Amino acid sequence: VEVGGQKIGLIGLVTAETPEITINFPGKEKLQWRDDYAAIVNAEAQKLSSEGVNKIILLTHIGLGVDESVAAQLQNVDVIVGGHSHTLLSDTYKDAGAHIYPESVEDADGNPVYIVQAGDRTQYLGRLDLQFDADGKVTRARGDTILLSRYITPDPAVQTMLDELAQPINELKQTPVSGNDGQTVISQVMLSNKDCRIGECAIGNLISDALRAETGAQIAIMNGGGIRADINEGPVTIGEVLAVLP
């Protein structure tokens, strides 16, 4: 595309797991799926570069953890606008953990690749402002996610009713989780869910071990996509458990 007299290259990338995680659709069996993401993107970026495009944006639906891994192998890509893991990257809103906006990963040539993602369900809108030099190198990257509901004025009567209904629930969510010994459960580290959709993760192991312990089963399997949030370092609350396993 051309914006303000500048050529901007756009490359799209979806997860190779798409056939397994989507419903059947006409022609699905005719499509080929590859997971050598970096090689695919670099080939397309090279084509764009040969056409004089020196500003390239990669639109992905592969998850933040994979975005970060792929970014380190790329060439000529400036920005990754990601999805799939529903990760909220923000300097302002920390609902999903201590993520910054934008993240930065060095590519194969030592240049920064800026990664952004704005959660899910259209709760947030991401804004990223970039400055480029004459050679197409990013000299400045800044922005943040915007909470869209901040521009909506609540109905006072409805808000009062919701606040009254939410009060006992919020109190319950702040209640610390106790172990069998009656002591508060404390997480020594932050347990992230960002890699759970692509492989083994610590929080997934914790949940699976808990399922085995509670049921007496020999094997427990946890769906990575069902792990919906992180557990932060410190005392674990009922609210965190509900967020992780809603």
Q: How would you summarize this macromolecular structure in one to three sentences?
A:
The chain is globular and about 65 Å long. It contains six helices and eleven strands.
- How large, in whole angstroms, is the Cα Rg? 21 Å
Q: Could you spell the SSE succession in H and E letters?
A: EEEHHEHEEEEEHEHEH
Give the CATH level 1 class of the largest domain: Alpha Beta
Largest sheet: 5 strands, mixed
CATH fold-type name of the largest domain: Purple Acid Phosphatase, chain A, domain 2
User: How much strand?
Assistant: 15-25%
Shape: globular
**Quaternary structure:** single chain
The number of distinct β-strands equals 11
CATH architecture assignment name of the largest domain: 4-Layer Sandwich
- Order of strands across the widest beta sheet? 3-4-5-7-6
Task: Enumerate how many helices there are, as a single number.
Answer: 6
How confident is the prediction overall: mean pLDDT?
A: 93
Spatial separation of the terminal alpha carbons: 41 Å
Overall helicity = 25-40%
The named CATH superfamily of the largest domain: Metallo-dependent phosphatases
Count of all domains = 2
